[in-house]
Amino acid sequence: MSNTILKAEMLSKTYSNGSIMQHVLKNLNIEIKAGDFTVIMGSSGSGKSTLLYALSGMDKPTLGTIDFKGEAISNYSNDQLAVFRRKHCGFVFQQIYLNDTMTVLDNIMISGLLVSRDKKAIANRAKELLQQVGLSDASYHKYPSQLSGGEAQRVAIVRALINAPEIVFADEPTGALNSTNAVNVLDVMTEVNASGQSIIMVTHDIKTARRANRILYLKDGVIIDELNLGAYRKDDPDRHKILREFLESMGW
Amino acid sequence: MKIRNMVILFTVIMMAGYLAAITTINASQINRVDVTEINQVAKTIEQDWQAGDTKKSGANRGLPYQIALVTDENYQALLYDGIKNRQTIIDLTGTAADGQEKLLGKIIILTDGSEEATMKRNLTVMITLTFGLVLIMVYLLFGLVHTSILRPFGVLKEFARKIADGDLEFRLPMDRGNYFGAFTESFDLMREELRKARQGEYQANISKKELVAELSHDIKTPVATIKAICELLEIKLATVQAEDLPGSTAATTITESIAKIAVIDAKADIIDALISNLFHATLEELEMLKVNVSEQPSTVIIQMFKEMDNFGKIRFKNDLAECLVFCDPLRLGQVIDNIISNSYKYADTDIDIWFGLDKTDKNLTIKIKDYGAGVDPDECPLVCEKFFRGSGESIQNTPGSGLGLYLARQFMVAMGGSIRCYNEGGFTVELGIKVV
């Protein structure tokens, strides 16, 4: 549990608009350990999503280094980054981004086929994972339009997990779901984390944040505070109270 | 002597006098009754008794008396009363039948004893009142002296102290009803004059500096023109030289001219640098020099060194840690420009650069080191002072204004950073820049 898999040092991201430079992330130092469920919180425009994209290699940082298992991915070319993302990262977004012209199974398998050629093994793993997230055999050949929002998001989670990534990056995965579906999706995420996968998630929602064992609070591109919930059991009622107090102290 | 001590001393003296007076009064016996008078009275009464007038009380010569006869039953009681009342008692004798003198009784002169005590008491009250009044009067006098003379002096003292401290805005409170009114007014006039003079001096100074700033700015334009013309002439003469026959007098003249023009160009460069430092120093004095600190990527620093690396002498000894720093790129550029120019001027060796990042202190250090003679250790702490130039011969022979490192320090401090200069096998400057 204690080995670091992702480490960012002096991470900065600057967007320039003509001569005006906007520093979205400022000298951030973050360490993500294997098995961590990290949640990034903060008000709009604080740089949460930018941080997630920089950490996941979807975007290159302006300054600073990012190490994945000792390798500096901040020096990777775009092609190298694409390969890195495919192999080691899973992504879940608020907009689910399933291909409407493919069935559920195909949607999942296409991600797997980018990494491996063993079609049968991928199909088996996909089915196994779908079972795990509570989707029955009947759904395999449905099209995304035939799924509810919660089901679609669960399919997206399976797609993110198909290559057994070390880290799953999630950007407000429950943002567009109703509360029942949100709880469903979060339960799946919690289970995924319990099986050893690291999760880094951006959220606005305190109920979602409660699932994490570590909360980073971002303001104006700087981590202003960090809360460690790892010491409390997932069902501990104090967990919610402590998180609420933490967020209140952050001016939530 | 303090007024309080004076009051105490005076009170003590008054108290001592008062006590002495009271003691004297109480100790003195006042015998109101004249002895000869009483003897006279006693003789008269005895004669009367001899003559047979045996009245037992009456008045003689204004003195009431009573006679207690030995034969009286209450003889002892009467005597006792007389003694108790502090009355004068004299024997009454008469000649008996056998011709012998014989005590008949006692004449008790009825003087009032308590009258004396009353008188003493009245006297004491009178003296107490008198002394008390005198004491109160003196206290009032002291009070008056204190409020009307000593306190204004205190205010005046405080006023003088403020003036000495340079606070010319402090108005002296005036009370024209006071003896000191006119006196304090003249003091306040003095302050007013002083203030005006000070203000005038300040204004004059400012305009002088503004003039220097304007002039130094204006001088830059003709200097730039001189430089442009120098370059133009150099190019023109070089073309002519190429066309001309080698070895001819004209060719030699042209070669010499080109060399002279190069000197003019170099000198113009020096004038330009001096003027520019003078301009900035004057602006700094006028508090008109703006340092706009913003969050900048540390990579801009590399660019600044590269722009100064005209002779290929700058060597980066390690990688710069990428991070966001607080700086004004324009001013930091000037700082680096000044340091590197100094190194070119005085050392003219390779220049090594080290970067260091302290994450806990949030500080980025840039160590700039040359391998020249360094500065005199005694003069090292002074190099960042305004107009300070080393005393060494080579330094005195090199043109310079003594403003470069001074400005560097001002700029670094304004950016929230630091500058440190020391010798370490050559002159070394360490810049500290705040990390976001």
Structure explained in plain terms:
The complex is a heterodimer of chains A (252) and B (436). Chain A has 252 residues and is α/β, with parallel strands linked by helices. Chain A contains eight helices and ten strands. Chain A has helices at 48-55, 78-88, 104-113, 119-132, 149-161, 179-194, 206-209, 237-249, and strands spanning 4-17, 20-33, 37-42, 63-68, 71-72, 89-93, 167-171, 198-202, 214-219, 222-228. In chain A, the strands form two sheets. A six-stranded mixed beta sheet of chain A has the order 6-7-8-3-9-10, with helices on both faces. The relative contact order of chain A is 0.17. Chain B has 436 residues and is α+β, with helices and mostly antiparallel strands. In chain B, helix 5 packs antiparallel against helix 6. Chain B starts with a helix and ends with a strand.
Overall 3D geometry of chain B? rod-shaped
| Overall spatial form of chain A | globular
In CATH, the homologous superfamily of chain A goes by the name P-loop containing nucleotide triphosphate hydrolases
Within the largest sheet of chain A, what's the order of strands? 6-7-8-3-9-10
Largest interface: A-B, 13 and 15 residues
Oligomer: heterodimer
Q: Count the E strands of chain B.
A: 11
Individual helix count of chain A? 8
User: What is the string of SSEs of chain A from the N terminus onward?
Assistant: EEEHEEHEHHHEHEHEEH
Radius of gyration of chain B: 56 Å
Kindly name the structural category of chain B.
alpha+beta
- Second CATH tier, the architecture of chain A: 3-Layer(aba) Sandwich
Mean pLDDT of chain B: 84
| First-last Cα distance of chain A | 30 Å
> What is Rg of chain A?
18 Å
Q: What are the low-pLDDT stretches of chain A, counting only 5+ consecutive residues below 50?
A: none
Helicity level of chain A:
25-40%
Range of strand content of chain A:
25-35%
Give the percentage of residues in beta strands of chain B.
Answer: 15-25%
